[in-house]
Amino acid sequence: MSPGPHRFVPLEFERVPEAEMLRRARELRELLQRRRSVRDFSPEPVPREVIEEAIRTAGTAPSGANRQPWRFVAVSDPDLKHQIRVAAEKEERENYEGGRFPPEWLEALAPLGTDWRKPFLETAPWLVVCFKEEWGVLPGGRKIKNYYVNESVGIACGLFIASIHAAGLVTLTHTPNPMRFLSELLGRPDNERPYILFPIGYPAPGATVPDITRKPLDAIAQWNR
Fold this sequence. Notes:
This protein is an alpha+beta fold. It contains eight helices and six strands; from the N terminus they run H-H-E-H-H-H-E-E-E-H-E-H-E-H. It has a single domain (44-205), classed as NADH Oxidase. The chain has helices at residues 18-33, 48-58, 78-97, 103-109, 120-123, 149-166, 180-186, 217-220; strands at 70-75, 126-133, 135-137, 143-145, 170-171, 192-201. The protein has a four-stranded antiparallel beta sheet. The chain has a two-stranded antiparallel sheet with strand order 3-4. Helix 2 packs antiparallel against helix 6 (149-166). The radius of gyration is 20 Å and the shape is globular.
């Protein structure tokens, strides 16, 4: 992460016919249309190599000034997963039952059937926590500012989710609030803040998800004025 001018190289780009372009776009959309957030996981093991590839895919995301302000911490150790669950449920119980969540948010969550209990944090074979780096540190110890951190890390997490789904697995974007306990349990430095926790694995046999729909194109897109 050293500052200075970058060397430029030719762009690797393959132009495809419009029909092929549309086919690829449609296939990706149809694949991701089947993606769902899952809370019922099987304990069946998942190869580490699959998680590595998903993290590599996340690392291809664009970022402000190419600072790449993300760190993905993968957890499979049962004892550590248990500690994460205990700490997360402590915070979530305060959110749901201790008055932290406003009534409007609890009302919005009600149809999804969620509460403070998070057994998936132990059941899922992998937990991957994405941390955002609020500033960088050069080899000599000098701090440098990272730019557009939330935007950059959000894009990386989106690519991570897509990769997990494309691999044939399921995940969930879990954001217990506050999440400082993740920094402490995972030994992360002061320049990092927890962003999203992803439990990852296979769905449990008979797993169910809420019966929801996605907004149609005309509700999310506008063409010119």
